[in-house]
Amino acid sequence: MVDKNKKKEDENIFDKNIKNEENIKDEDYINEEDKDFSEDLEESFKEEETEIEVEEEKEKGDDKLQNLTDKFMRLQADFVNFRRRTEKEKAQYVDLGITKLANSILPVIDNFERSMDAQTDHDGFFEGICLIKDQLIDALKANNIVEMDAKGKKFDPNFHHAVMTEKSDEYDEGIVTEVFQKGYLINDKVLRPAMVKVSE
To answer: What is the pLDDT of residue 200?
Structure first.
């Protein structure tokens, strides 16, 4: 009876040992599978990280290109504005120079006209004065400076400077009856207003 029990015990121990060995083999197999899976997963992560890095570098490159494009566009706009401003200033300086020169010449023309009005003898000297005055007027016209037509026109304070008023049977009220000093326009703007007499 004891032998039977001992035999049974030995069998149980043997079975346990076999099962343990099988379990160890299964665990080793599972560990190998886990290891392979872990390696595959790690490799996959590395590939994804590489792709992400490539995308990030591409985005950085796109951002850099966009920034450079924006800078170029701003510089181009600044240059266009600078060129326009420079051209405008240049035109203003030219206009200012012409205006200053014209304002210096107009009194000379006035004096020529006064001397012509006072001259009774229309000799060669008179003809020479007329010729010089006409040349000065032509020089002004070449720079868009023209004489203002004032006599017989309605008084306009933007164009005329009234120095006297008088009652007139010939003209209605507020009409320029006489011009004491001619007015001039430059590019349709008043260079010098006309000094006039106005009817009441």
So the answer is: 85
